[in-house]
Each structure stands twice: as C-alpha cells, then as structure tokens.
C-alpha cells in the first residue's frame, strides 16, 4: 500500500512538471533531427546535438544556407573582402579572414532563420551552441525546409513569374534607355542641323545682299566704262582732227614761207602771227597730249575696271555655284527635316510603346501585388487556422491535464479507500481472530465445565 501511494505521488509530480514546461509543437526529437541532417549528406548523430561541436554545427548551418539561399562563405568572400578594404584597408590583419567570413555568413543565416521563426538567433549559437537552442533552431529550419519542399511548385511558379517580370522590366528599361539615348542624339542632331541651316540661311542672305551690291556696282562700272569709251573716242577724234589741222597749217606755212621772206614787215607780222599760232598750237598740242595721256590713263583704268568686272563676273558665277550648292543643301535640309519629322514620329511611336509597356508593367505590378495580397491573406488564414489549432490543442491539453488531475485525484481516493478497506479488513480479521480466540477460550471453558460437571456427577 505504501509503495502504491509513493508511485501515485511521483506520477503526480511528473505530470505537474510536464504541465509547467512550455511545449513547442514544432520541436523535433534529436533522432529525427539527426536523421534529417544525415539525409542532406552530412554525417550527423543525436550525440552531436547533445554535445554540439561548433565546427560541425557551423558546417551544418552552412549546408542549410546553401540549400535554402544558395549562399556559402565562398560566395560572401568578395563582398566581405571589399567591405574590409573599405573599412580598414591599411590594417587588414585586424579582422582575420575566417572571422570576417563567419560574421558575413552569420548575417545571412540570421535573415534566413528570421523567416523560419527564430527571431533571437545570436552569434553565440554558432560559436557556443547549446543543446536546447540547437535543437530548437534545427527543428524550425527542418520544418521550414519541409514546408518549402511541399510547396515547391507554387514557390517555383511565383519565382519564375517574378524572374520573368524582372527580366521583362530590365529589358524594357534597357530598351527605354536606348530609346532615350537615340532620342537625345536625334535632338542633338536636330539642334545641330537647325544651327547649320540657320547659318546657311544667314550666309545665303548675306551672299544675296552681296550679289545685289555687286550687280549694282557692275552696272555702275559698266556705265562708267561706256562713258569712258565714248569720251576716249571723242578725244581720239579731236586729236586726229587737231593733228590734221596742224599738218595742214604746216603745209600752208611752208607754202607761204617764200612769200613772207620777201617783205620783212610782212614777215615780221607773219612771224608774229605764226609764233602766236605756234604758241596756240603748242598749247593745243600740250593740252591734246595731256588729254591723250589722261585718255590713256582712263583706258588703263577702264582695262583695270574691265578686269575687275571680269573678276566680279567670275565671283558672280562662283556665287551662282554657291547658290546652287545652297539650294542643294536646302533640299538636303528639307529631306533631313522630313527625316527628322519621321524620326519624331518614330519617337512618338516609341513613347507610345513605352507608355503601353509602362501600363503593362503597372498591370503586372498590380497582378503581382494582388498575388502578394492573396498570398498574405492565405498566410493570414493559415496563421489564423494555426492559431485555432493551437488554441484547440491547448484546450485539449488543458482538458487532458484536467482529466489527468481528476484521474489522479480518483486514484488517490481509490488508494485511500483501498487503504481504509485494508485497515477495516485488518481490524475485522483481528476482531474475528480475537472472537475466534474468545470462542476457543469459551469452548475450552465449556469443555472444562462439562468435564468438571461429569466428574462431579
């Protein structure tokens, strides 16, 4: 009876201890954790969880990170090396390579475990792991991997859609950048062509004004040349006439010379007259020579002017050629303007395509946001369902604990009743034994009394 009572008390203490301990429904047993890690290709036993080795645990975590995030220490090495060079490039030996890689891997691993439900992961879990913490972290990670494997199709589908959308966005962004560069280049070419066209038009206007001035100058020079030619002709005719008159006067003087010598007075008068005529003739000859030299000079000037006129004509011809070139350039400019207008239309089409693609991108973003919202609603529904299941489990556990306590109380009562019954049984047996002894005593007394009576009779 005492042993049964002690066993019941120990059972109650164990039940009470189990009720006081927090129960984590996601926690796995050590053997199950070891088997799951061994299935991943890492030799692992339950004793490695009871007595964790930091090197082995770090290797396990690194394998989990590579499995879930495709991240290892080697992939983190370039980024961590660049960060170390930026922070302490002069003293690289301050932070060893292994420590640097371990710290970078710890940051990535903490992000992954936050998604798994471990929000208090610390660096000591890598360098000084304990049994309880390690079992909890590995249990959550394994449950997350199982959940991920059960929803691989949905995750891959959403991931592929996200990657396709991302690739499409990058393609559209690249095309947009190319179109913008082409548009900027076309705008620059248009501005350069507009400047060149304005310069050509200004130069054309200047050449036209210069051509008009040269034409007017040519007309004035031609008029002056005609007047000079007419004056030269008149001067030459006058000179020839004066020369003929001089020759005739000399001939007449030679004819009259014999007659003049016969009379001194007449000769003197004739001489005086002839001297006067000679002076007048010399003066006329000098004036005619000066006029001839002036006419010669005018003729030379006219020749020079004629050469200038020829040069002006050549310049006008060159200007005509330049004007023809300008007209050709104007035609090319018109073609370029047409091409520019066509390119402007192409740019507008590109802008319309860009707007259309942006609208499509916005629709895809809205669809993605809708999928995220649905996924979030689904997660919230699953979370609510999980909370309900937890509440139900908690309620069932409470009922089970209550029933266990009731059973323990009933067991105690039964044991107490059994003890009382045993005590009563002992008392009854003692009473029966004492009554039997009394009966035996009475029987012996009766027999003795009967014997004495028989003897007395």
Automatic annotation (TrEMBL):
Lineage: Eukaryota, Fungi, Dikarya, Ascomycota, Pezizomycotina
GO biological process terms held by the UniProt record: attachment of mitotic spindle microtubules to kinetochore; cell division; kinetochore organization; meiotic chromosome segregation; mitotic spindle organization
Protein name from the UniProt record: Probable kinetochore protein NUF2
Compositionally biased spans, kind Polar residues: 1-12
Domain Nuf2 DHR10-like span(s) in chain numbering: 275-391
Organism whose genome encodes this protein: Cladophialophora yegresii CBS 114405
Domain of life: Eukaryota
Main location: nucleus
Classification via Pfam families: Nuf2, Nuf2_DHR10-like
UniProt keywords, alphabetically: Cell cycle, Cell division, Centromere, Chromosome, Coiled coil, Kinetochore, Mitosis, Nucleus
Cellular component aspect of the GO annotation: Ndc80 complex; nucleus
Gene3D superfamilies assigned: Ncd80 complex, Nuf2 subunit
Residue segments, region Disordered: 1-20, 367-388
Signal peptide positions (record): none
Subcellular location, record wording: Chromosome, Centromere, Kinetochore; Nucleus
């Amino acid at each position: 009876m005492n042993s049964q009572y002690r066993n019941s008390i120990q059972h109650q203490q164990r039940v009470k201890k189990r009720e006081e301990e927090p129960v984590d429904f996601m926690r796995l047993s050590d053997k199950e954790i070891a088997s799951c890690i061994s299935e991943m290709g890492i030799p692992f036993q339950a004793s490695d969880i009871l007595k964790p080795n930091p090197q082995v645990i770090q290797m396990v975590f690194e394998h989990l990170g590579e499995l879930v995030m495709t991240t290892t220490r080697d992939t983190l090495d370039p980024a961590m090396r660049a960060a170390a060079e930026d922070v302490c490039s002069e003293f690289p030996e301050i932070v060893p390579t292994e420590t640097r890689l371990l710290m970078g891997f710890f940051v990535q691993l903490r992000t992954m475990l936050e998604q798994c439900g471990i929000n208090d992961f610390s660096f000591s879990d890598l360098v000084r792991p304990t049994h309880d913490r390690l079992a909890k972290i590995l249990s959550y990670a394994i449950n997350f991997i199982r959940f991920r494997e059960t929803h691989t199709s949905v995750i891959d589908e959403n991931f592929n859609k996200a990657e396709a959308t991302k690739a499409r966005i990058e393609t559209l962004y690249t095309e947009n950048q190319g179109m913008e560069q082409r548009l900027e280049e076309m705008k620059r070419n248009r501005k350069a062509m507009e400047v060149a066209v304005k310069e050509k038009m200004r130069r054309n206007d200047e050449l036209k004004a210069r051509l008009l001035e040269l034409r007017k100058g040519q007309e004035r020079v031609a008029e002056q040349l005609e007047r000079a030619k007419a004056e030269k002709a008149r001067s030459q005719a006058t000179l020839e006439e004066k020369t003929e008159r001089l020759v005739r006067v000399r001939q007449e003087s030679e004819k009259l010379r014999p007659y003049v010598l016969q009379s001194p007075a007449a000769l003197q008068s004739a001489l005086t007259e002839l001297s006067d005529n000679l002076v007048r003739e010399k003066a006329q000859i000098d004036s005619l020579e000066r006029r001839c030299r002036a006419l010669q000079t005018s003729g030379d000037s006219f020749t020079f002017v004629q050469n200038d006129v020829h040069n002006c004509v050549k310049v006008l011809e060159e200007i005509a050629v330049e004007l023809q070139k300008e007209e050709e350039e104007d035609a090319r400019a018109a073609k370029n303007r047409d091409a520019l207008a066509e390119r402007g239309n192409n740019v507008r089409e590109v802008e319309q395509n860009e707007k259309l693609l942006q609208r499509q991108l916005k629709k895809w973003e809205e669809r993605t946001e809708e999928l995220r919202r649905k996924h979030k609603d689904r997660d919230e529904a699953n979370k609510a369902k999980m909370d309900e299941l937890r509440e139900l489990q908690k309620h069932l556990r409470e009922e089970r604990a209550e029933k266990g306590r009731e059973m323990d109380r009933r067991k105690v009562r039964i044991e107490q009743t059994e003890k009382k019954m045993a005590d009563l049984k002992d008392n009854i047996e003692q009473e029966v034994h004492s009554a039997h002894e009394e009966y035996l005593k009475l029987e012996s007394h009766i027999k003795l009394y009967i014997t004495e009576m028989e003897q007395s009779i």
